[in-house]
Amino acid sequence: MKPMYIYNAQLMTMCREDDFLIPNGYVKIENGVITEVSEGVPTDISDNDINAEGKILMPGLIDAHTHMGVIGSGEGEEGDDVNEFTDPVTPHLRAIDGVNPLDRYFEDARKSGVTAVVTGLGSTNPIGGDMILMKTAGIRADDMLIKKAGIKFALGENPKGCYSDRDEFPVTRMSTAAAIREALKKAKRYLEDIEAAEEGELPELDVRSEALIPLLKGEIPAHFHCHRLDDIFTATRICNEFSLSRLLIHCTEGHLGAEILGKDGESAVLGPIICDRGKPELRNITPKNAAELYKNGVKIAICTDHPEIPIDYLLTSAAVCVKHGLPREEALRAITVNPAEMLGVSDQIGCIKKGADADLVLMSGDPLDIMSEPLMVMIDGKIV
Fold first, then answer.
1. Residue 47 belongs to a domain with what CATH number?
2. Which of 47, 107, 187, 268 is least enclosed, having the fewest CB within 10 Å?
3. Does one domain contain both 189 and 135?
């Protein structure tokens, strides 16, 4: 395939090692990958290349926590596969089996510049299943998959509400944490039995424990749904007990303990940003949360929690955080390179650099201006 240039662009690279903004630059794309990033104008421009006309070219946006395609658009119960209410501990459920790539919200994501999302299960079960990182273009989830992103855990109001309504275990915060510990201890022993087994003498298959092995080995992080500060600290307590890497999802009251979370080196995926105090856990929600956590050294990403807030509002969510004290560059990093780094894929997506996927968005104006919109969105070098 012939190389393509996008030139005469303001490049917002988002890369840590490079300038945040290259005022007049270009990218070269070959076989879906960026092969050159430079200032100036390439010498071998053809009619097939794209003149950005001085507009901003930035990496495709990444929403680090959604339920895209697992909760369908306007489909009611038929399109809702986000929670397996019949069992509180289901780490063996695979999000890829529940995602519908033809759901209309994937098109909405592309139109709004979102080229990759984390999607999956939760958040009513203490352990809900896996989370996956996928591109937003395609018709078969297997082809869109970037990687398994983690295992979903939930604390607080959601599991309490679900299982108390059913009069089943767990119905308190303590029993929710106990259910998680029990599963992790069982998986740890299962892993030890596998490692100690002689050839041909493996323990009987335990699919739940099997699903938790990558987590125990540190290959993937725990994604902990936690709003209240006490639940946030329960998440970090459990992770410390089992030496788990983690992402604090929502982290709504993080601002109340930002100094501690910063000293502990935590990472948080914040959102939804634009929402009401629709349940008790959200009574202390504030759009200043992102700024407070960032100022105290917490690495942050911003999410929509789609469909809680539609995927279209990811950039708007970042803009609201800027209005309330988050630096502009950090807000843009929070929907590009920061989630990519948290998910271990910053060599592939989230910034404009040589070797990265050609997931790019050409903006009509300032990305954080509500009147701006994507003029072109590209995934793997194809305009989508």
1. 2.30.40.10
2. 47
3. yes
- With 80 as the cut, is the pLDDT of residue 18 above it? no
User: Is the domain of 42 the same as that of 185?
Assistant: no
Q: Give residue for tokens 């780490």.
A: 91
What does the pLDDT read at residue 248?
98
User: Within this chain, do residues 204 and 190 fall inside the same structural domain, yes or no?
Assistant: yes
Note whether 240 and 282 are same-domain residues: yes
Q: Between 161 and 273, name the one with better pLDDT.
A: 273
Residues 79 and 50 in one domain: no
285 and 364 fall within a common domain: no
Tally of domains in the chain = 2
Q: By residue range, what is the domain housing residue 98?
A: 61-345
Question: Do 309 and 372 reside in the same domain of the chain?
Answer: no
* Whether residue 156 is found in the same domain as residue 209: yes
How confident is the model over 250-282, as pLDDT tens digits? 999 999 999 999 999 999 999 999 999 989 999
For residue 269, the cross-strand partners are 249, 301
CA 332 to chain centre: 14
* CA–CA separation, 62 and 301 (whole Å): 9
